Amino acid sequence: MKWSFxxxxxxxxxxxxxxxxxxxxxxxxxxxxxRELDELLHQRSYQKDEVIFDEGDTGLGLFIVLSGRVKxxxxxxxxxxxxxxxxPGDCFGExxxxxxxxxxxxxxxxxxxxxxxxxxxEFVSLLERDRGIGVKILFELSRMVxxxxxxxxxxxxxxxxx
Length: 162
Description:
CATH superfamily of the domain at 42-120 and 129-151: Jelly Rolls
Strand content: 15-25%
Number of strands: 8
CATH architecture of the domain at 42-120 and 129-151: Sandwich
Shape: globular
Strand order of the largest sheet: 1-8-3-6
Distance between the termini: 70 Å
Number of helices: 5
CATH topology of the domain at 42-120 and 129-151: Jelly Rolls
Largest sheet: 4 strands, antiparallel
CATH class of the domain at 42-120 and 129-151: Mainly Beta
Structural class: alpha+beta
Helix content: 25-40%
C-alpha cells in the first residue's frame, strides 16, 4: 500500500496567502482575513511599456506590484521631478480607494510586470462587511501616505516639515 503525504505540501492557495502576508499593506491581517481579502483582489499582467492607467483616467483602485517595475510619470509641473518607480511589494494609486477622481499621473510597466488590484467598490464592500479587516488595511495605508508625504516634504527645501 502506498501512502500519500499531500498534507505536507503547501497548496497554491496557501502559498498565495503567505505571499499576501508578506506585503506590508496586509501584514496585520490573519490567515482568515487574508483569505477573505484574496477573493477581492485581481491579478493583472502588463508587458514592457504597457500603460497600467493613464493621467486623467478615473481612479478606481490601488495596485500592488508582485513582480516587475512600474514608473509613475506626470505632466503636472509639481510632480514631474518625482517620477517614482515601484517594485515588488510596493503599492501605488492608493488615493483612488478614497475618491474616484482623475489620476494625476500615468503608470507604465518598465518590464513585464504582475500586479494585484484592489478596486474601490470592493474595498468599500469589505469595509461594510468586516470593519476589522478594513481598519487594519486603512491603518497601513495611512502609515504609507504619511511616510510618502514626509519624504516629499523633506526633499522640498521651501516646504515646512511637520
